[in-house]
């Protein structure tokens, strides 16, 4: 394996690590340690922000495949994040209406 191939593999792994973490933090995946669904939207946002920063810092240094992979992951995470925020807003609105 060449250094370039190794670095591509490591890049994919680090992006995948933050992808899995963000999904877990949004409550889309079980926490493997507790075997429970847990949500921490602030932490999920931080994981997404880290991937955004990585994309910005790596601009011009990624292969087309790496660029596409990272962009696709970010798009998926951002859509899921917005969806989860909308769920929270709906629950909040429903709770407020029920209290009145």
Question: What's the arrangement of strands in the largest beta sheet?
Answer: 1-2
Termini gap: 65 Å
Mean pLDDT: 91
Poorly predicted runs of 5 or more residues: none
- The helix tally amounts to 3
Helix and strand run: HEEHH
Strand content: under 5%
**Number of distinct beta strands:** 2
Largest sheet: 2 strands, antiparallel
Overall outline: elongated
Describe the structure.
The protein is mostly helical and 100 residues long. It has one domain (3-99). It is built from 3 helices and 2 strands. The chain has helices spanning 3-25, 41-57, 64-99, and strands at residues 30-31, 36-37. A hairpin with a 4-residue loop joins strand 1 and strand 2. The protein is elongated.
Write the layout of secondary structure elements.
Elements: H1 3-25, E1 30-31, E2 36-37, H2 41-57, H3 64-99
Antiparallel strand pairs: 1-2
Helix pairs in contact: 1-2, 1-3, 2-3
Features:
3 helices; mainly alpha; 100 residues
């Amino acid at each position: 394996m060449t250094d370039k191939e190794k670095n591509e593999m490591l890049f994919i792994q680090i992006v995948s690590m933050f992808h899995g973490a963000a999904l877990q933090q949004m409550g889309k995946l079980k926490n493997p340690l507790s075997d429970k669904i847990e949500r921490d939207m602030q932490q999920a946002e931080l994981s997404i922000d880290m991937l955004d920063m990585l994309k910005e810092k790596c601009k011009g240094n990624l292969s087309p495949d790496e660029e596409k992979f990272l962009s696709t992951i970010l798009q998926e995470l951002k859509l899921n994040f917005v969806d989860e925020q909308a769920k929270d807003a709906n629950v909040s609105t429903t709770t407020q209406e029920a209290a009145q």
